[in-house]
């Protein structure tokens, strides 16, 4: 066997091995996205349909309808697997919507404040001071609890604090860019401020913002689960991991799976989001502690 | 320096009070009708609206509200039938117990984990600890609480699953709340220990012939304590937020279970009192951490003076 025939293969294997663990979060997150997208099309779930003969069945039990409850059933005979799948859709939808809103608001405010400085920047600093006096989850509980139950209200209640970190990061980037040569050149040539911001400042915020968005997504999904665990925010028909975990709390002794399994689903997603966020931050990010 | 911090603090409290005013006023439903319950007559509602000043222009209501906040008077809780502030102060000690114990656990465990991980960066222990900190930070606290109950209260029957009374009741809620903060302290300690292990004074200590243990505890750890103090102060908001959730898992009679109950029942007097009290605590502790940070580190102390 000649060396030349073996080497490229070895190199490829080695590269794959080194790269493989780093790709795990992408695969896991893609899997969650897939489940959230097509899971509800494959599995039927009706929160109002409560076959009481099937209540509190252990994982793997036979249902009265003939099917198998792979993850067991809850106290009302509803399938846990279906709740995990539908819960994934709820969590990902709210997470994406909130990060989108927070990102749009935060990046706009941050980039303008960092570029313009002056009173605008000072106002931003004071607003964040005030909002950060409240624990984020407490503000979300109050806002989501006081207004009518709905998904948009939950998104709003979580966005109220989530935009701050986006504003802070983009402000930092904009602040460091405004003195750079190409920005000066654009200014001297009389390019309007709006175009300078959009074409010469904004593109540089993309890396840090994507890294931050991943971490924020994890925080938002956790916060949403917390809200629905407390029974605040989502409309009664909605299925959410936090709600299923809360429902199982009083049956812990007899049916551990109700609270345990959705929690594992939630934890796995957050862990992978966190790892991915750390990877991206190491690559593109600014240090988050810098203000 | 301190005066400036305090001035910002006063501003922040005014802002926080205003945010709560806006949220409560924007909420659907008539506060007077909520207060009196479903059986109230129109005349009763109208009379209460007048006494509460809810028929006045919004700005006048706002000024009056700010005055009430200054006097710590948030009005009567319609559910508890007594001043909201009284109920809130009654619940405060339980939350203080919980958060202080959790902080102590997080600092001790986090320092220990960070120290063993940071003393040999890249080693097996380091990798295990980093993996553990990611997990600790990612688990939803309410789920961690339920899993601990499942294991230690229902499975091993070692500890009570909920409620208060004995010190044993405090263990599970405090450990649950400490989970994410242990991870934060461990990460921070690890990075500052590895950093200071490269500093000249650690080399000096080593060349003096001190044992590795003495170098770690006497030199590397001591300098890592300063950022830990700061992070504990800065994480106060997150800690109080975590307490709100944890208290509800364990039926812990603190501010967190009070505020969730009040929100669910539209008891706005209590909601306002709790949120502003928590905002005040967070703000004061942030200032304390800032000032302590400057006091503790001689390098920054001289910098701040010059």
TrEMBL record, chain A:
Compartments, as annotated in UniProt = Cell membrane
InterPro entries in the record, alphabetically? BP-dependent_transpt_permease, MetI-like, MetI-like_sf
Name all ABC transmembrane type-1 domain ranges: 88-277
The record's section on PROSITE patterns has: ABC_TM1
- Tell me what topology the record assigns in the membrane: Multi-pass membrane protein
The record's section on Pfam families has: BPD_transp_1 (PF00528)
Residues spanning the membrane: 24-43, 94-115, 127-147, 209-234, 254-277
Task: Name a GO CC annotation attached to this entry.
Answer: plasma membrane
Keyword annotations for this protein, in alphabetical order, are: Cell membrane, Membrane, Transmembrane, Transmembrane helix, Transport
**Single Gene Ontology BP term?**
transmembrane transport
Top-rank taxon? Bacteria
Which family is it part of?
Answer: Belongs to the binding-protein-dependent transport system permease family.
Name this protein carries in UniProt: Peptide/nickel transport system permease protein
Question: Where does this protein come from, organism-wise?
Answer: Nonomuraea jiangxiensis
Automatic annotation (TrEMBL), chain B:
- Keywords per UniProt: Cell membrane, Membrane, Transmembrane, Transmembrane helix, Transport
- Pull one GO CC term from this UniProt entry: plasma membrane
Q: Which InterPro entries match?
A: BPD_transp_1_N, MetI-like, MetI-like_sf
What highest taxon heads this organism's lineage?
Bacteria
Indicate the principal place this protein occupies in or around the cell: membrane
Gene Ontology process terms (BP):
transmembrane transport
Membrane topology term: Multi-pass membrane protein
The family database entries (Pfam families) matched by this protein are listed as: BPD_transp_1, BPD_transp_1_N
* Spans through the membrane: 98-116, 128-156, 168-188, 225-250, 270-296
Task: Reply yes or no: does the keyword Electron transport apply.
Answer: no
**PANTHER family recorded for this chain?**
DIPEPTIDE TRANSPORT SYSTEM PERMEASE PROTEIN DPPB-RELATED
Q: What is the recorded name of this protein?
A: Peptide/nickel transport system permease protein
In its UniProt entry, the species of origin is given as Nonomuraea jiangxiensis
């Amino acid at each position: 066997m000649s060396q030349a025939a073996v080497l490229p293969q070895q190199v490829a294997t080695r590269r794959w091995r080194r790269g493989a663990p780093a790709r795990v979060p992408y695969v896991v997150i893609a899997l969650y996205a897939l489940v959230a997208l097509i899971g509800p099309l494959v599995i039927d779930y009706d929160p109002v349909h409560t076959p009481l003969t099937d209540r509190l069945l252990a994982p793997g039990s036979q249902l009265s309808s003939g099917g198998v409850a792979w993850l067991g059933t809850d106290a009302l005979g509803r399938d846990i697997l279906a709740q995990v799948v539908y819960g994934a859709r709820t969590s990902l939808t709210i997470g994406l919507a909130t990060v989108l809103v927070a990102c749009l608001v935060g990046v706009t405010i941050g980039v303008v404040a960092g570029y313009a400085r002056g009173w605008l920047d000072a106002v931003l600093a004071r607003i964040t001071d005030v909002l950060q006096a409240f624990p984020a989850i407490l503000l979300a509980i109050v806002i989501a609890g006081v207004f009518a139950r709905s998904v948009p209200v939950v998104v709003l209640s979580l966005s109220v604090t989530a935009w701050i970190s986006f504003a802070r990061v983009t402000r930092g980037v904009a602040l460091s860019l405004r003195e750079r040569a190409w920005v000066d050149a654009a200014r001297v040539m009389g390019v309007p401020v709006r175009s300078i911001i959009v074409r010469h400042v904004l593109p540089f915020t993309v890396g840090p913002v994507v890294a931050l968005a991943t971490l924020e997504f994890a925080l938002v999904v956790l916060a949403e689960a917390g809200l629905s665990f407390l029974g605040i925010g989502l409309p009664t028909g909605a299925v959410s991991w936090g709600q299923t975990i809360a429902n199982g709390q009083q049956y812990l002794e007899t049916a551990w799976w109700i609270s345990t399994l959705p929690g594992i689903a939630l934890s796995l997603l957050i862990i992978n989001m966190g790892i991915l966020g750390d990877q991206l931050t190491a690559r593109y990010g600014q240090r988050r502690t810098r203000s | 320096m301190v005066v400036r911090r305090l001035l910002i603090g006063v501003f922040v409290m005014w802002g926080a009070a205003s945010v709560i005013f806006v949220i409560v006023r924007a909420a659907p439903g008539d506060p007077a009708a909520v207060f009196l319950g479903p059986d109230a007559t129109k005349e009763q509602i109208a009379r209460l609206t007048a006494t509460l000043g809810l028929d006045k222009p919004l700005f006048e209501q706002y000024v009056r509200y700010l005055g009430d906040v200054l006097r710590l008077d948030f009005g009567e809780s319609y559910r508890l039938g007594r001043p909201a502030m009284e109920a809130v102060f009654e619940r405060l000690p339980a939350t203080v117990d919980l958060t202080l114990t959790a902080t102590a656990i997080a600092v001790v465990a986090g320092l220990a984990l960070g120290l063993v991980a940071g003393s040999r960066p890249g080693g097996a222990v380091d990798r295990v600890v980093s993996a553990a900190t990611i997990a600790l930070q990612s688990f939803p606290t309410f789920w961690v609480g339920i899993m601990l109950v499942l294991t230690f209260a229902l499975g091993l029957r070692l500890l009570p699953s909920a409620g208060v009374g004995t010190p044993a009741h405090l263990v599970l809620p405090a450990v649950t709340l400490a989970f994410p903060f242990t991870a934060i302290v461990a990460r921070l300690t690890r990075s500052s220990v590895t950093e200071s292990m490269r500093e000249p004074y650690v080399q000096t200590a080593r060349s003096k012939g001190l044992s590795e243990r003495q170098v770690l505890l006497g030199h590397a750890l001591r300098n890592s304590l300063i950022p830990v103090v700061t992070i504990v102060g800065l994480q106060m908001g997150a800690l109080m937020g975590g307490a709100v959730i944890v208290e509800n898992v364990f039926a812990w009679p603190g501010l967190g279970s009070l505020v969730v109950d009040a929100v669910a029942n539209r008891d706005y007097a209590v909601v306002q009192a709790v949120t502003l009290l928590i905002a005040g605590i967070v703000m004061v502790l942030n200032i304390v951490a800032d000032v302590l940070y400057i006091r503790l580190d001689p390098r920054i102390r001289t910098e701040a003076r010059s």
